[in-house]
Design goal:
3-stranded antiparallel β-sheet, Serine Threonine Protein Phosphatase 5, Tetratricopeptide repeat, 384 residues, Arc Repressor Mutant, subunit A, 12 helices
């Protein structure tokens, strides 16, 4: 048997069928950091920030070297030269199929391809195989807030997407009764995820429980209005309309398009298929944030300060403005964008983004008194 590395649960190393112990603390954090960037160099500065945040000790480089040496010893029988020294840091060599995260992502990609081909049996099998790799919470025994904040949400989102694909495929295969209880549990755990609600409505309807399907829609609608101040997305409204009118589309395949989750920020994208005219106006919520920095670490104190400022807004008589200052190139924009994604759900009216072009190679920076136009849902508004 070969070597296997596990991150999707407590961190685990297996060689020749036996578990190799990795000491808790910094050694386990180091292994997790290297595995999460497998076959890529991780700089000493990044490791130091993962270990100690923004206040590494003067002996940080030497201490990291010692942890690398001990980790190499712990992995000595898993293959030669697992950890190589690079010009600025270290790289963990992992062969194809050895790391559970890469196997999971490959199976998830295969399941998505099967959905596009309407190969529902294959989609269900591949998604199930991907989910079987999960042994618990990712990095469950790795004591690192930085890694948990950086990689935990992304991995959790991928797992939810795999669940959605598997349940959708099961629904196409006629396994209605088997997934109802599972969907109800997932909705309790993720009450604002519209796709789970839509799948439950479809499942109840195809199981001959139209009244419960309509009640499920009213439940999620009240929840979204109370919690976020928004109506359900277009895909969920379409499923409701089809259940209400017992549309033939619900008894044929494929199932109606449902909102997909965006892995970068967790926002529910909505289907673009035109709906029949409605009497009330549908509010368009702007979601203009660019994707966050992929390997953002640290700045936990600054993010906590922004959280505290936001918490104080309710006591403020008017708008609150936060300014992030510092010298050029230290990551002000990256911090602002990272926090904006982190706090996006607390801004149900949407998020706007204006590029001030501070370092734009094409155009000059915007002047302080500049005005412009942003667009959302076909409507234009002025900013200054």
């Amino acid at each position: 048997m070969g070597t296997e590395f596990g991150i999707l649960g407590p961190i685990e190393v297996r060689a020749a069928g036996a578990v190799r112990p990795i000491r808790p603390g910094k050694q386990r954090v180091l292994l997790a950091a290297l595995l999460l960037s497998a076959n890529q160099a991780v700089s000493v500065d990044e490791i130091a920030e993962i270990f100690w945040g923004l206040a590494p000790p003067p002996s940080a480089r030497v201490t990291i070297q010692n942890y690398v040496m001990r980790l190499r010893q712990a992995l000595a029988d898993t293959g030669s030269s697992r950890i190589s020294t690079q010009s600025r840091g270290y790289q963990m060599r992992v062969a194809a199929g050895e790391l559970d995260v890469t196997r999971f992502e490959a199976l998830l990609g295969s399941a998505r391809a099967a959905v596009r081909d309407s190969s529902w049996g294959t989609a269900a099998a591949r998604a199930s195989a991907a989910l079987s790799l999960w042994r618990g919470e990712p990095l469950a025994d790795v004591d690192s807030e930085a890694l948990a904040a950086r990689d935990g949400p992304r991995l959790a989102e991928l797992r939810l997407q795999a669940l959605e694909i598997r349940i959708d495929a099961d629904l196409h295969l006629g396994r209605h009764a088997e997934v109802i209880v599972e969907l109800q549990r997932l909705i309790r755990d993720h009450p604002l995820r519209e796709r789970f609600h839509g799948l439950l409505m479809l499942t109840l309807h195809r199981d001959g429980r139209q009244g419960e399907a309509l009640a499920a829609y009213q439940h999620v609608r009240r929840l979204l209005v109370d919690e976020l101040g928004t109506e359900p997305g277009a895909g969920l409204r379409e499923v409701h309309q089809q259940v209400l009118t017992v549309a033939p589309a619900l008894t044929s395949r494929p199932a109606p398009e449902l909102p997909q989750a965006n892995a970068s920020n967790g926002h529910q994208e909505t289907a673009t298929k035109p709906l029949r005219p409605q009497r009330r106006m549908i509010r368009v919520v702007p979601r203009q944030l660019p994707a966050p920095v992929r390997h953002f670490v640290g700045r936990l104190d600054e993010q906590s300060a922004l959280d505290a400022l936001l918490d104080s807004v309710s006591a403020s008589p008017g708008p609150v403005l936060a300014a992030i200052t510092g010298t050029a190139g230290i990551g002000k924009s990256a911090l602002a964008l990272q926090w904006a994604h982190r706090a996006a759900q607390r801004f149900p009216d949407g998020q706007l983004y204006v590029n001030l072009r501070g370092y734009d190679p094409v155009g000059p920076p915007l002047e302080p008194l500049a005005t412009g136009i942003y667009r959302c849902g076909g409507r234009a508004s002025k900013f200054s």
